[in-house]
Amino acid sequence: MKFLIVVSLVCGLVGIHAPLLASKSVSSEKGYPLPILSKHKVASNFQKAKKGFEDRWKKFSKNRKFMPFNPKLSDAEIEKKFDSLKDTRNSLYYENPSEQPLFATTDFERAQDLLTSGFYKAPHLLAFEYNCSHPSFNSSNVIVNGHRFLALEGPQKSAHVRNFLQLLVNYNVKHVIRLTNDMEKGVFKTENYWKDSLQTNKEGPDKLVYKIPEEENNLPYSFNYYAIDHWGDNSGTCPKGLLDFVKRVRKGYNPGDLIAVHCSAGVGRTGTFITAFLLLDDIDRQLKKGIKKEKLKLSIEELVYKLSLQRAYLV
Hints:
By secondary structure, the chain is of the alpha/beta class.
């Protein structure tokens, strides 16, 4: 349980506040509706993302030692560690992180087509060029230990909802995870795309149902749907509640399934959920090998870096 306390605390510590990325591009909101991608193109996008991440991880992790999980660390010590982590990843993202305006490094350039599309919340929270899911929606292809995720922001305008839902269809998403409400303390966070598409299910996960208007057969697409409505932006959450939620998602998960995870910006709460999901998977894997609980080898630091190299400020 202690590692989940750390993970939930991280969401409140790391934050997503950063200056805007310098750009000469002008938002035009082109790319509506979102073009349908072929299965081959989707597979190619994930293969490109996988290769891009592996290249960046090899470069970053060379001669670097990662801090193993230590349940004895105080909250103050954890905060200090993650302050250092923030500084390190800013030095990865930007040529001169202490100077304004900010310019992205070559490895972590933001997706330029996405930047001009207007389908995003803020420029510094855009997907990287190398693993952007689609030029008409702010989503990143994330791969860790064989598990695949779309880490994406919630649709920020009613006109974005269709692109959001069609992206899920394009990528044959099996599970949709929503970690924000549409409004939080009177502040807008995401369009309420689920109100007319949700089918509750007492025997299993709820279903999110969507039809592509232009399809000849117009058959509905259905996704397993999970949501947390009480997790505030830039704050931690109840560790036990997060643990139970992740277990519920994993119960309906099969290896190879693609999970789409979003909050408002698709970084803080989104990254925290993915981290918890992967940590539980790693724990189960080690326990099945006969490793005792007290001998488990875990590094939250390493995992957060792996995610941060695949989406800016993820966690």
